[in-house]
Amino acid sequence: MIGRIAGRIDYRASDHVLIDVRGVGYLVYCSDRTLSSLPAVGGMAALYTDLLVREDILQLFGFPTLVEKEWHRLLMSVQGIGAKASLAILGALGPDGVSRAIAIGDWNAVTAAKGVGAKTAQRVVNELKDKAPTVMAMGSAPPPAQDAGEVIEAESVAAPVAAPVMPAGNGAQAEALSALTNLGYAPGEAAGAVAQAAGETSDAETPALIRAALRLLAPKG
């Protein structure tokens, strides 16, 4: 299975790009957010990919980071969420927004994705709340190098699987989550507190996030 490709963008459409990798063109479907971040036709791009295999079709889906790819795979595990809905959620919220919405149980935020109703959004939050900390703790993965042309099989891409999921690009949140779980808090409980604290103070560093999360976790009354 193809896990990553890098090459020249030969064509752009409303939901996919054609990437030329040393003479072979790959159609890669992406979220609106990812598409908007890619260069124009003729520019170089590199994406982590997930291959969807059906009886009648093979489709590649592309993501700028491994964290976003893992979110796609988790979202696809929820009943009623297919590839199109997963990309809509990631396009509307981004991996950070998905992490926060699930961690704090904000299913209403998930309905911002086109075609995702309240019942489906609630199912997403309920089914993934215990899995979210794993993706959130992955932290930020460096963007793939934009090589002249490269295809890498998925088996050669070492994606973390055992670590708890913090929003990509925010190491402070990942460190705060790790500290709280080391203190004995349940991953889901800790993730919710860190996500809420980060939402209130988005630029807080690790110590401040830990203190704020501990205040939220403290017994009330």
UniProtKB/TrEMBL annotation:
Keyword Chaperone part of the UniProt annotation: no
UniProt xrefs under Pfam families: HHH_5, RuvA_C, RuvA_N
Subcellular location(s) per record: Cytoplasm
Keyword Nucleus: no
Region (Domain III): 170-221
Domain Helix-hairpin-helix DNA-binding motif class: start-end pairs: 73-92, 108-127
Chain intervals for the UniProt region annotation (Domain I): 1-64
GO molecular function, a single term: four-way junction helicase activity
Keywords, ordered alphabetically: ATP-binding, Cytoplasm, DNA damage, DNA recombination, DNA repair, DNA-binding, Helicase, Hydrolase, Nucleotide-binding
GO CC, alphabetical: cytoplasm; Holliday junction helicase complex; Holliday junction resolvase complex
GO biological-process terms attached to the record: DNA recombination; DNA repair
Primary location group: cytoplasm
HAMAP family (UniProt xref): DNA_HJ_migration_RuvA
Note on domains (UniProt): Has three domains with a flexible linker between the domains II and III and assumes an 'L' shape. Domain III is highly mobile and contacts RuvB.
Assembly with partners or alone: Homotetramer. Forms an RuvA(8)-RuvB(12)-Holliday junction (HJ) complex. HJ DNA is sandwiched between 2 RuvA tetramers; dsDNA enters through RuvA and exits via RuvB. An RuvB hexamer assembles on each DNA strand where it exits the tetramer. Each RuvB hexamer is contacted by two RuvA subunits (via domain III) on 2 adjacent RuvB subunits; this complex drives branch migration. In the full resolvosome a probable DNA-RuvA(4)-RuvB(12)-RuvC(2) complex forms which resolves the HJ.
Similarity comment: family membership: Belongs to the RuvA family.
Known function: The RuvA-RuvB-RuvC complex processes Holliday junction (HJ) DNA during genetic recombination and DNA repair, while the RuvA-RuvB complex plays an important role in the rescue of blocked DNA replication forks via replication fork reversal (RFR). RuvA specifically binds to HJ cruciform DNA, conferring on it an open structure. The RuvB hexamer acts as an ATP-dependent pump, pulling dsDNA into and through the RuvAB complex. HJ branch migration allows RuvC to scan DNA until it finds its consensus sequence, where it cleaves and resolves the cruciform DNA.
Protein name, entry field: Holliday junction branch migration complex subunit RuvA
Gene behind the chain: ruvA
